[in-house]
Amino acid sequence: MATYVILSRLAPDAVADPKQFKKLADEVSTKIEKQCPKVKWKDSYATLGRFDVVDIVESDDPKEVEKAAMIIRSYGHASTETLAATPWKEFVSYLSRD
């Protein structure tokens, strides 16, 4: 399965009160689970800096990852950037092949 990193930045008007964020995140999660069954969530992180949330997902279907990112964008009031990710050990092993 391929690994993807979805970086999200929430719109300033995404939630009126930070306490509402959990509800919004649960709603987005539920929608993605139903509409993108080939996307397996590995982990999520709240971050400080340019992005508010980093999600790590796996899927054999990049179209479903695209759909998940669009759900986050539209339903979650966010902008996203999605990156394909290669585990470091795999990446380094490719470099040492002749």
What this model shows, in words?
This protein is α+β, with helices and mostly antiparallel strands and 98 residues long. The protein has one domain (2-95): Dimeric alpha+beta barrel (Alpha-Beta Plaits). The chain has 3 helices and 4 strands; from the N terminus they run βαββαβα. It has helices at 21-35, 62-75, 88-95; strands spanning 2-10, 40-46, 53-59, 78-85. A 4-stranded antiparallel sheet has the order 2-3-1-4, with helices on one face. The longest helix is centred in the first third of the chain and has 15 residues, at 21-35. The mean pLDDT is 94.
What would a concise description of this structure say?
By secondary structure, the protein is of the alpha+beta class. The protein has three helices and four strands, in the order βαββαβα.
Key phrases:
98 residues, alpha+beta, Alpha-Beta Plaits, four-stranded antiparallel beta sheet, 4 strands
Secondary structure layout plus pairing:
Blueprint: E1 2-10, H1 21-35, E2 40-46, E3 53-59, H2 62-75, E4 78-85, H3 88-95
Antiparallel strand pairs: 1-3, 1-4, 2-3
Helix pairs in contact: 1-2
Q: Looking at this structure, what is the CATH superfamily?
A: Dimeric alpha+beta barrel
The CATH class: Alpha Beta
Please report the number of helical segments.
3
Q: Radius of gyration over alpha carbons?
A: 15 Å
With strands numbered from the N-terminus, the spatial order across the biggest sheet is 2-3-1-4
Shape: globular
Q: What class would the helix/strand composition place it in?
A: alpha+beta
Unreliable spans: none
How many domains comprise the coordinates? Answer: 1
The fraction of residues assigned to DSSP E strands is 25-35%
- Identify the CATH architecture: 2-Layer Sandwich
Q: Quick one: how many beta strands?
A: 4
Biggest pleated-sheet summary:
4 strands, antiparallel
Arithmetic mean pLDDT: 94
